[in-house]
Amino acid sequence: MELKKYAVRDAWGLLEVVQIENEITLQFGNHTAQSGWNPARPEQLAFGYYQALCVGLVLHPEPLRLNLYGLGGGVLARYLLEYTEISVHVLDLRPILAEIARQYFGLNIEHPRLTLHFADMSASDELTAIPPADIIWIDLFDEQGMVPIPTRSLAVLAKQLDDTGVLCINIWRNALDEVTDITRALAHFFDETPLTIHVPDRYNTVLCYRKTPWTAADLMRIHGRVGDFTAAIQATLREALHWVQPLANKRAR
User: Fold this and answer.
1) Rounded to two decimals, what is the model's pTM?
2) Virtual CA dihedral for 99, 94, 109, 239, nearest 10 degrees?
3) Most buried residue, 38, 121, 167, 212, by CB count within 10 Å?
4) Mean pLDDT for each 10-residue chunk of the chain (253 residues)?
5) HEC profile of 76-102
6) What is the pLDDT of residue 251?
7) DSSP-derived secondary structure letter, 229
8) Where are the domains of the chain?
9) How far apart are CA 11 and CA 193, in angstroms?
10) What is the CATH number of domain 43-243?
């Protein structure tokens, strides 16, 4: 049974909070869940792509700072604050999401390790307010699908990472034109061959980029880092690591 808990319209359209059985979801005026969680099981991530993004945590040797582009219902930010010691900077376009995340998705918007920014991702000058990070997560969708990110904005994001930094982006594989555009743009700033994580039974794929190429040794190390995290994160990683695809063989030039 579907229960509509809240609806509001801001300058960019309709936002709805809907409960289906035990899961609370955020929708942008359609039937696609943009965020979701079960308040009775906060240690479990509702969506496979959430789990896939978490693989980025073990792709960095010591993640302490994470920049998240796309707040949604605040599920990922809440999860990081509750089950890691990572400091989180979030940027989103819609300020009203902060109160929705607090009221319906359990995000403590006054947490000392959380900083919220509200600005247009396309305005590269706005992005300069976001500090350097070890990991970047991009989860930017609206009611139409993937939100385009200008190359000039990706250039700013690339400067937020050093050579060990990792950028993980959630994409929809069926949006071929958008995927082609974003991967070509990212190849200007990172190694052209990302680590690929396919979410089972979904069109979501998480692509993980670094400025230096991924190697087989990198994949060996990530399993040894799982134990550095809390039990909740370990459980998430043990499932998601099965979805990591073998490294692509690069053609000789």
Assistant:
1) 0.95
2) 110
3) 167
4) 87 94 92 92 96 98 97 97 98 97 98 97 88 97 86 96 97 87 96 96 94 95 96 97 88 47
5) HHHHHHHHCCCEEEEEECCCHHHHHHH
6) 52
7) S
8) 43-243
9) 38
10) 3.40.50.150
